[in-house]
Amino acid sequence: MAEQRIKVAIVGGGIAGLALAAGLAKLSHIDVHVYESVPEYKDIGAGLALHLNAIKAMALIGPELRQAYFDKALSMGEENEEMVTQVILAQGPHSGQLVAELGRAKGRKTVSRADLLAGFLELVPAACISFGKKLVGIHEKPPPSHNDDHDHKVTLVFADGTNAVADCLLGADGIHSPTRRHILGADHPAATPKNHDGWQIYRTLVSAEEARKHIDAKWTTSVPILLGPRGHINCIPLSRNTRLSAGVAVRRGPSSAAAALSPSSQTTPPPLDPSLYADYTPDAQRIVSLVALDPSASWSAADHDHAPSYIPLHPSTPPPRIAILGDAAHASLPFAGNGAAQALEDAAVLYHLFARGVASAAQIGSALIAYDAARRPRSQRVVEVARRFGRVYAFAEEDGEGEGEGRKMMHEDPERMREFFAEMARFTNEFDVEGQNEEALRVFGEVEGGASGLRN
Ligand code: FAD
Q: How confident is the model at residue 404 (pLDDT cuts 50, 70, 90)?
């Protein structure tokens, strides 16, 4: 009898879900279906910059995915203009010093989430995705015995009263992931997002023409991050220098942090008060005043404490059939600009395991164990790196050197800051994404009891 196709359900058609679905839909032994809660995608404004590791991950799923990004991305400025994020101290004795140049590139691009999703969606057959399907429950039917893992099924229950049955559920359902709550247990301390440092992001979106009436024109065609203890200030030119996203990220500190953020618990932030920035550089003060005019695009940032596992916590019996990826697994603060890139690395590893490893439903468990082993340490380190970027930006990070009285804060030593940013950029962006895929496949072979099960 011919092997049945393996039914893979992906919950969440965001960056992780669609990238993975675009890959799995190419595999003849996989029957993939995406269940997305919204009836259609909305443009929520912010531009994403995808770094080298993200571009490599897309290419490993398929050149068409990488091309979709390049087709949809818009240059921040002119096509041949070199752009770089300049991190500059904007308060204190070293005011004006440049401490990092991040992501230097000619024709540097940003892409809106909605445009990127539209590009990915074109690569997923229409029959493989359903919109308006909000996951509200997960039931597992374990096999009658250990030898019958083919009968192991997962049932997805949706808010509209319908359900679906699959061999495997991959939860790409974002920062408030119900799949994460199912895996960890709703009471687990890491099940829901946190805002430990009380981050509040004040943001405005204006035309570049309007911005130039308030701030120096150079900040509408460059990407500065201006640092100081009461918030860091950031400008991102969008759509070939015609629009500007300007923001002030304020770390209100642990005492004001909402312990756990549910989608409904977002409170109105205190208004942004430009007078608090009187000791910042004049340029920085003017950008704060611009943001304060209309901070209607403001939001509270949050991330995840580390999940002990991206697959069910007791994976021994039966082997796992559920996993989380993307923000559902490791939502991070936006300060390292690598959340979407990590989601794409997850998708690349899972695609590789299903393409080169999994030949039958009974092997799904080994693939998910290998995925968890390959991806959890690195993706969780990126969550920590993003938290650290936030503290460094807010002049709240010790430099890790010296002892007791001699211990310095990082912002007191611009040279130390330069080293920190260079080291972090190497870790996040210049990573061997292909090697990570191969490592996952090696672990899969090991879990399967030898490399004999690998597909060509
Ligand atoms: P999402 O994109 O959140 O997708 C999750 C999907 O699941 C959504 O479509 C949602 O509707 C769906 N869903 C949720 N619940 C359910 C349910 N119950 N049933 C069915 N479907 C459900 N990253 C970068 O790499 N570079 C950047 O420059 C960058 N900039 C950023 C700037 C900002 C302001 C922010 C907020 C984030 C930024 N990030 C950046 C991070 C990046 O946006 C996220 O890491 C990325 O979108 C995660 O993708 P995802 O697919 O895991 O989750």
A: low
Give the pLDDT confidence score for residue 150 in this predicted structure: 64
* Residue of 173, 264, 346 best suited for mutating to test ligand 1, as the one with most atoms within 8 Å of CB: 173
Quick one: which of 351, 336, 430 has its CA closest to 383? 336
Q: Dihedral of CA 414/420/422/424: which sign?
A: negative
Instruction: Check if 346 has its Cβ closer than 6 Å to any atom of ligand 1.
Output: no
Long-range contacts of range 258-262, CB-CB < 8 Å, 24 or more positions apart? 258/195, 258/198, 258/300, 259/194, 260/192, 260/193, 260/194, 261/192, 261/193, 261/194, 261/195, 261/300, 261/302, 262/176, 262/192
Q: State the CATH number of the domain containing residue 10.
A: 3.50.50.60
Model confidence band, residue 451 (pLDDT cutoffs 50, 70, 90): very low
Q: Which residues make Cβ contacts (< 8 Å) with residue 176, sequence separation at least 6?
A: 192, 193, 262, 263
Quick check: CB of 172 below 6 Å from ligand 1? yes
pTM of this structure: 0.92
Task: Tell me, yes or no, whether 86 lies in a domain.
Answer: no
pLDDT at 267 over 70: no
Residue 157 in domain: yes
Beta bridge partners of 129: 34
Q: Is residue 262 part of a domain?
A: no
Question: Which tens digits make up the pLDDT trace of 167-183?
Answer: 999 999 999 999 999 99
Name the residue at shortest CA distance from atom 32 of ligand 1.
334
Q: Map tokens 């041949």 to a residue.
A: 80
**Residue-number span of the structural domain to which 137 is assigned:** 6-78+107-193+304-399+432-453
- pLDDT bracket for residue 289 (50, 70, 90): very high
What domain count does the chain have?
A: 1
**In-domain check, residue 220:** no
386 CB near ligand 1 (under 6 Å): no
Looking at every residue in the chain, the average pLDDT score rounds to 88
What's the 175 CA to ligand 1 centre distance in angstroms?
7
**Quick one: which of 100, 56, 115 has its CA closest to 424?**
100
Per-residue pLDDT, 236 = 85
CA diameter of the chain: 76
CA of 343 relative to ligand 1 center, distance in Å: 9
